[in-house]
Known about the structure:
mainly alpha
Amino acid sequence: MCSPAKAVKADLTLTSTDNQEFQVHSYHCKAHSTVLRDMLESPGLNESAIPIDATGRELRLFLNLMTRWEVLNPSDSATWLRLLELCDKYDFYLVRRRLKQRLRVYSYKSPWDAFCITSHLDELDIAKKAIKRFGSLTGQKDIELGRMPFQMATQPTLPYLLGLLHGRNLVAHSDDPSWAAVSEIFYPAT
């Protein structure tokens, strides 16, 4: 299968914020995005290229998610959030759902990152799964307010961070002080 940046017989060009051009099939965009479908079906559209508010790297990942099953995951939390923001901006419901499914799997590899990402999405079920996996991480078994580095504390949203710390404090002196126990009672602070 060819790269989504140079699709064979493509009839649409998407341009990233860093001026990279991606030749794509308009039917993919119409099928996945109500915003782009409306734009492409507008009789007043005279542009040969449609600007997309994403870098070339982000747009390449995004197009891979839209057109392929086997794709790489975003490499960092900021890219995950940026791709999800693009899904919302252009109403790519299926790509958003696919990203969230990949985030569930990503939580096995990087539970802390997955927890932070889900805190911004307010995805409680994925956050709980990520918390349950904290015990497998070296150096993150004792997440406590006094010991957490500032940079780490700024990654999740405040309600999720406070909920995590509260849950950890509640189970710290119980019969089961595991992260699995924290995940069962976890709820973001209100």
